Amino acid sequence: MIWRFGLFDGTFEPLASTHWALVAALGLPLLLGMLAARLPPRQAWPVLLASVPVLASGLMLLSAYDQAGPLRWQWDIAGIQLSLRLNGLSVLMLLMTQVIGVAAALYTPGYLRLSEPGPLSRWLWPLMGVVLSTLSLIWLATDLLTLYAALELMGLAAVGMLMLSAKASALVAGMRYLLLALVGSLTYLLGVALILGHWGRLDLPGLAEVVEPGPVAWFAAALIGAGLALKAALFPLHAWLTPVHESAWTPVSALHAALVVKASLFILLQLWSILLPDAFYAPRVIAWLGMLAIVWGGLLAWRTDSLKTLVASSTVAQLGYLMVVFPLLLGPDVAPLSRALAWDGFWLQLIGHAFAKAAMFMAAGNLMLATGESTLKGVAGTSRRMPLSLLVLGVAAVTLMGLPPSAGFTAKWLLLDAMVRSQQWWAIAALLIGSLLTAAYVFRLFRYSFYESAPHHHYQPLAPGMDLIALTLALAAFALGLLAHFPLTLLHGGGA
Amino acid sequence: MMSLLLVLSLLWPLGVAMLVAWQVYRAPAGRHDYFSWWWLSAAWPALLLAYGGEVQWTIDVWMLGGEWELNTLTRPWLAFTALLWSLAAVHARGYFAAEQSQAQSGDQAVQRRLARLSLLWPLALLGNVMLIIAQDIASFYLGFALMTFAAYALVVHSGTDKARLGAKAYIILAIVGEGLILGGFLWSAGEADTLTLQGVRESILVAEHGAWMAALLCLGFGVKAGVIGLHVWLPLAHPVAPAPASAVLSGTMIKAGLLGWISVLPLGEAGMSAPLTQLGQVMLVAGLAAAFLAAFYGVFQHHPKAVLAYSSISQMGMLTALVAMGLVAPDAWSILWPGVVLFAAHHALAKGTLFMGTSISEHMPRWSLALIWPLLALPGISLAGAIGAGMVTKWAVKSPLYEMEHDTLIKLLSWAAVGTAALVSVALWRQWQQRQPGGSNGWQWGAWLVGISAALITPLWLPLPAESITMPPLKEWLGILWPLSVGIALVATGRLLLRFINTAAPPAGDLWWLYAGVIAAGLGPVKRINRGCSELKTACVVSCRQAERSLMDALTRMLEAENWMRHHVSGLMMALALLLAVLLIWEGQR
Amino acid sequence: MIAFFEAIAAFDVIEVLLALGLTGSALVCLFDRHLVRACYFFVFFAAAMTLAWWLLGAPWLAAAELGLGLGLTGPCFFYALGHVLPSASSSLERDTFSEPGSRVAMRVLLALAWFGMVGAAIRTVIADMAYSPLEHPLLLAGVVIAASALGAFALHRHLLRRLLAFNLLGSGVFMLLAGVAGTSAAAQAFISVGLVVAWLGTMLGALLIRRLLHLEGVEALGRDGNPKESAI
User: Fold this and answer.
1) DSSP state string for A436-489
2) Is B188 exposed, middle or buried (0-12, 13-18, 19+ CB in 10 A)?
3) Among A176, B80, B181, B520, which is least packed by CB within 10 angstroms?
4) pTM of structure
5) How far apart are the first and last CA of chain B?
6) Do B581 and C117 touch (CB under 8 A)?
7) Following CA atoms C47, C51, C54, C58 in sequence, which dihedral angle do they give, to the nearest 10 degrees?
8) B377: buried, middle or exposed (CB in 10 Å: 19+, 13-18, 0-12)?
9) Which residue numbers delimit the NADH:quinone oxidoreductase/Mrp antiporter transmembrane domain (chain B) (predicted)?
10) Where are the beta strands (DSSP E) in B471-574?
């Protein structure tokens, strides 16, 4: 597990150009966000122009990894070791972050122009920049301090973004999210304190070498696990998630559901793979909770009346799929093949869900923006007027349901394979029930949209490209299923 | 040239049907002429084709491979069929003149009726022509089915209750028949892996269960041909159908059943198996029974067209018996079949003309009765075999039987002819009773007159093989003529005897009422079960809906736990941390 | 535990007094329904923390605590109360939201369990590290503060009190961090980042509280977990 995360020494020195690409990948979103706060873009094309160097930096890092293998940066500042690594997984996550971030940014000008959000909208750009920068940092960082700082910053910026709509409901939900996120980080910090006190080092590769099972590792793992589970909205600590999305702006929801919650999960898995290489019960507890999450999230999404709650509850269920894989990734006595399959399936599911969920939030946002309604009944009859938005919803839902040829299908196929090999029948049952429930809530939405008796007289026309961006993301989730070879190669190359 | 004519004879009716459809949807209803010259001409290419000579045509692209042929058998068949369709069409123009003017004055129901009739008439004709020239199963069956179902519109035309009943009887039995035919075809064709009628004949001859295949097909075509037991639609449908429709129904369509038999049964083939011979005997008995019983039942009918319908059943019974001879005594078939074809053609024309005559007697032209009544009687007398073509026909059938020494059958047929004579005279008498003045249309009586003359001189124009038909020698005339006088005498004495007894007519359609009663009785329990099932279903639906609602309510209540979780996130996080720590420590201590 | 008390008895009285002061002021701050008084106690707590960092030999941290905790975070609370830059909406005086007894009991139980868990964790770490009994009273205070602050956080409904609880939890965790890791550069970096984050979070929270008061009134501050909330 540790080598898969690229947590080891002895790799090549990065080239000078790679340094610049790194700086660009980490700093540009922030800088551009600040710039956009000064000069808010009214059209999509300046955003497109600005996103070119960001994406270029990601591609440069990809090519650098292709040529030289895993890379490593290390700084010693006032006796504190800070380090970054670039392996296949982090490149993949970085590219995903940049693509979804750019898509959300491209979507934003049109959205803001149409929804007339008031003076606070200016703040959206820098906050988005902070979130994207810190996310990139989280995928790369390999020391506890950087991870902590990035996680905190990302959390604060995410709370800020989510509350920009300034409705009372958004404020209540946002305040809860703020307090819980901060407390979660403090719990995480308490765990880190134990690690620091006992082993006296912060860099993950070093820790991976010195950590041995014992009470300190266990306490730390429990504290870190609980804190990060709270931040990652893992069942049963997920309940803050849906109200937060209920009244947030569409691009913000897309970013948050697709990326922000995943960051905590990423850190959790990474740290547990160091602290608990052989624990049997703790990953199983997570997996059991994951099964509950699949069912509970599916039921919530099925019975809800609000479009955004539907999409947000589906996130809870989809995170459940990731939780179910924990025993395969962390538990003892798992065959290497099963573990490899589970590893591939885990990340493919995470990425596929990120794309699909971002697309789904955008499509749902389009529907709500055009109809001015936020309930399922409110979007009745949209099938005729907004076929493209519904198409996007459908394509994204295909990924969520795990139908071929989407990334969701490939991921679930890999996971099922791994589970069958390791005979985890409960997990398989949960996977299948989850797919059924997904179909149930998706088709409920579609049934409403095909009602023809809707009394809508006025549909707000959308800005050009808003549907197209969502469609691109949804198709990307499809393409990942068809071209799964590319991400899987990157994942396998994690430590070769 | 022949190929062109062949294609034309099929495409022309189709084109006419499309033209009618286009006109119905495009032209203003008020000025629409439903029976235009185009419409009248629908059967003419087929008539031309019949006199063009023999031809063979194979088209591979048509369905499963088309095999169309005009041979010595089908040429005369096509000739009388096309001729009768043409005459009936002309007659129809006169017959429907009143309705046409009603439609033009804006009666929408009549417009719909006429549109339906004029659209489906050419389609029925198309099916009839196609089944005659087809030699492959698919085309034959397609033509047969097309004719059968398009003819529904002809029967149901007037839309009265009786017409609906007749049409219902017709369509129910037609569907039964189609099913039987399809089953027989699939079985025999599958057995021999063939797609042609020739293959079916061979298959039936050599296959182990050939007799059963033949029985299926016999029964299937028998529906159309009015075999006893399956004939019940004829007396129900004919009285209610318009006269020209009755003419083609009785003249050509029931002959399609006969042609079906001739096409699929290995008649006159050497090496007939015992079961097939038995089948032939059964058919023979059934045919003779039909000939006598129908005559006996028919003479008591009141409606002239019902009487004529029973006459058709009786005549078809005789033809059934003759076809059965092809199975029972294969050697005779080669000299018998021209007589059968002539019989069919003559009966078609004569019966068609008789049906047209019923419309004449209902709207008598302003001629002398002394002119009209002999004219009305002529085709009937000919049918009884006393004059003209009828006499030739009788002889054409009798002489081969003489040669093969089937004396009993000849006697029986002669007695059956007595029945024919009786029926015809009853029909005429009923027409006389129900005659109405009113002046008929020139189209109407024109077609009728041409029909009479065509019926009387059938052997002259029917393209049968040369020398196959001869005039009867003088010494046989007595044997041919006596049934007519005996028949008339029987009717007259019967009438005198029954004068003082007020007999109610037995219902037309005889066995239909028995069938309907039996089936209704049989359906009683089924209906009860059905009702029980539907009640059960309703109860199930209600309880399922209740269960669903309560389940959904429970689910909604359960999902309110989400609020609880939202309120207790931090507490749950503390609990989760404790749980994980305890688990890890406990596992580590073990 | 006995070892702890012996250590307290044996060593520096100032440390003990400081630890007692910290714990006492934290508990008052956490459980006093009078919000203004609670905030004053928070300021007092921050001042005591500054002193503690100084005594522990971390002048930079003391400065950070003075600046961030005392100078910036404290005023944030008074702003949230409506005492600094008073706006149109009324200022907050008392927490009037009440909790059912079962919930209180549950939270007390959880807090005690956490106290046990954190204490056990700290002990396992301390047992292995170089012996430095000097920190023990403060360490104990840290454990008490962290556990009770988390319990109070889970218990309270009033947003301002939850914000206070979060701040105290942060201070407790920092104290534990310093206790187990010493005042190494890494620990100081962690604590500094944590202080900045706590200040930012508190500022954001204070702004939100004011905004909510303005929009919806006092009731909105205790709406957490109310079924009606999701129906907005």
Assistant:
1) HHHHHHHHHHHHHHT-S-------PPPPTTHHHHHHHHHHHHHHHHHTTHHHHH
2) buried
3) B520
4) 0.66
5) 103
6) yes
7) -50
8) middle
9) 134-362
10) none
Instruction: Give dist(CA A428, CA C198) in Å, integer.
Output: 43
Among B207, B202, B259, B237, smallest CA distance to B80 is for: B259
Cβ atoms A204, B540 nearer than 8 A:
no
Q: Is B529 helix (H, G, I), strand (E, B) or coil?
A: helix
pLDDT averaged over every residue in chain A: 87
Residue B525: CB atoms within 10 A of its CB come to 9
* Interchain proximity A196–C208, CB inside 8 Å: no
- A51 found inside a domain: no
Rounded to an integer, the average pLDDT of A173-190 is: 91
Residue A275 lies in a domain: no
Rounded to an integer, the average pLDDT of B522-549 is 92
Tokens describing residue B77? 């068949």
Q: Which of B91, B95, B19, B8 is nearest to B43 (CA)?
A: B8
- Tell whether the model's pLDDT for residue B310 goes beyond 70: yes
Residue B498 confidence (pLDDT) above 70: yes
**C11 has a pLDDT exceeding 60:** no
How crowded is residue B366: how many other Cβ atoms within 10 Å of its Cβ?
9
**What 3-state class would DSSP assign to A306?**
strand
- pLDDT tens, residue by residue, B383-423: 888 888 888 888 888 888 888 888 888 888 888 888 888 98
- Tokens representing residue B366 in the block: 């302003």
To the nearest whole angstrom, how far is the Cα of C154 from the nearest Cα of chain B? 5
Cα of B115 vs its chain's centroid, Å: 21
Q: Touching check for C123 and chain B: CB below 8 Å? A: no
B260-292 burial, b if ≥16 CB within 10 A, otherwise e?
bbbbbbbbbbeebbeebbebbebbbebbbbbbb
Check pLDDT > 80 for residue B499. no
Name B172's Cβ contacts closer than 8 Å, sequence gap at least 6. B233
Return the pLDDT at B53.
Answer: 81
User: Does residue A346 fall inside a structural domain?
Assistant: yes
What pLDDT does residue B125 have? 94
Q: Tell me whether residue A302 is in a domain.
A: yes
Interface of A with C in 174-193 (CB under 8 A): 174-176, 178-179, 182-183, 185-186, 189-190, 192-193
Domain of A411, in residue numbers: 294-496
User: What's the one-letter identity of residue B232?
Assistant: V
Q: Where are the alpha helices (DSSP H) in B329-474?
A: 333-362, 369-384, 388-404, 407-433, 442-456, 458-461
Percent of chain C with pLDDT over 70: 83
Residues 97-156, chain A: which have Cβ within 8 Å of C?
145, 148-149, 152-153, 156
pLDDT score of C230: 42
Which amino acid type is present at position B362?
E
Average pLDDT, chain B: 87
Backbone angles phi, psi at B2, to 5 degrees: -65, -40
The pLDDT tens digits of the residues spanning B348-385 come to 999 999 999 998 888 888 888 888 888 888 898 888 88
> Burial, B517: exposed, middle or buried (Cβ in 10 Å; 0-12, 13-18, 19+)?
exposed
Q: How many CB pairs under 8 A join B and C?
A: 37
Q: For A228-251, what is each residue's pLDDT tens digit?
A: 999 999 988 888 888 888 888 889
Distance of CA B287 to the CA centre of its chain: 18
Say what the alpha-carbon torsion angle A370, A376, A382, A388 is, to the nearest 10 degrees.
80
Q: How confident is the model at residue C3, as a pLDDT?
A: 54
Number of domains composing chain A: 1
Instruction: Tell if the CB–CB gap between A221 and B562 is shorter than 8 Å.
Output: no
Q: One-letter amino acid identity for C109?
A: L
For the segment A308-335, the average pLDDT, to the nearest whole number, is: 88
Strands A80-86 and B55-59: unpaired
What does the pLDDT average to over B207-221? 89
**φ/ψ of residue B196, rounded to 5:** -115, 160
- Of the partner residues A145, A163, A223, the one whose CB lies closest to the CB of residue C189: A145
Mean pLDDT score, A81-99: 90
**Residue linked to tokens 């007092």:** C44
